[in-house]
Amino acid sequence: xxxxxxxxxxxxxxxxxxxxxxxxxxxxxxxxxxxxxxxxxxxxxxxxxxxxxxxxxxxxxxxxxxxxxxxxxxxxxxxxxxxxxxxxxxxxxxxxxxxxxxxxxxxxxxxxxxxxxxxxxxxxxxxxxxxxxxxxxxxxxxxxxxxxxxxxxxxxxxxxxxxxxxxxxxxxxxxxxxxxxxxxxxxxxxxxxxx
Length: 195
Hints:
Elements lengths: L1 H26 L22 H29 L3 H28 L5 H22 L10 H6 L5 H22 L4 H6 L6
Helix pairs in contact: 1-3, 2-3, 2-4, 2-6, 4-6
């Protein structure tokens, strides 16, 4: 777990570099993201307890990285542009390991949970599952006349993004959480849907 976790920050820095270079190539100019003066969420700025790490592992690593892997894999499948394919392929290769880290952590940690701990983790996972479609269910719909170019770059429109999310939730994330005894299938049945 420790060894795998040490790779993640350098991977994410490389992903950001690849994304900026790819965006600059697509825009034919330098691109920047204005992070402004916004501080990072307070909950990630302090030393973590095991409870905090459980929550972080559910939300960011297991669910978040598994979703990222599925969405980026779908981008790779749809892309015909060779640079886009190379970028997605490179990032997906790392995201698989990041997602596994979250699941390995939970598999290691689950036997240590008290009844109260398990309920807390189940509540956290359930809240994430209920909100997943409303948080991530909007793709990047290209303007009229640009759909073909967007598809060549692997851009997921809303319909495709929602299909990918439903598939990964139903076949990977929810069963994985259920296997840990977290009852995610109950949360998935009552999830918030986008009209």
